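job 3f2a | input accepted
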Amino acid sequence: MNKEQPWWVNVVCAVAVLGFVGVVWQGVIWAQDIPAYSVPTPAMTMQALIDDFPIIAGRCALTLRDAAAGLVVSTVLAMVLAVLVSRWTVLTRPITGYALIIRTLPIVGVAPLVTLVAGRGVMATVICVVIVTVFTLFVAILESMRALPPAVTDLSVLYDTGFVRKTAYAWVPAAVGGIVMGLRISGPMAIVAAILAEWLSGHDGIGSLMTTAQANREVTMLWAATVAAAVVGLIAYMMPGALVGLARRFGFVMEVSAG
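job 3f2a | predicted structure (259 res):
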């Protein structure tokens, strides 16, 4: 059994990556002699983050909220589809096919249509997040359900366990590991989808802040918002692992495997 790395290792790695990106960023500016009005230095960007922290943090919180809402909807939808496929295997091909079609839709092209149908509010962002993430979560949850120990399956057959009880006591607990793995992949994808939806719809969030900064030629604010969006994506990636660590700290045992 592979022991998961402590949470602080992921934090240190994330900080190291950001530091490396900052060094490369500054090096390119020096090497190419790029003017500050085109690409601000990391120091200027950090200063903008500090000066406008309340604005940027508030917009990031809105983006996180909308992305989280979309992930909740995606998780519930993926769970329902996985349970249906596990119960009636004849549904595997059609459900998987439709889910794959949804996943392959170009979100850049679909987002404007979603905005026309759902408006320029939270609903449009949630729909965009669902389109991007539901297939990944569905596959991860389904694989976890199929990894049930044969003894559990044999026991349910022996006692002629009903659909509801089997779902509650076998499939749902088995799906937890798949949900965590799916969220690790889907979390950053959800942030990207939410930002793109905000960018196109103008709904409050870090995406619309980037649009406004670009329109007003506030280059430093644009780069500061971009850095903040990258940090939010890292948070979304690390959050499922942090929740697993917290569960273990309180005595809950959770096995999370890639397959």
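job 3f2a | The chain has one domain: 54-249.
job 3f2a | closed
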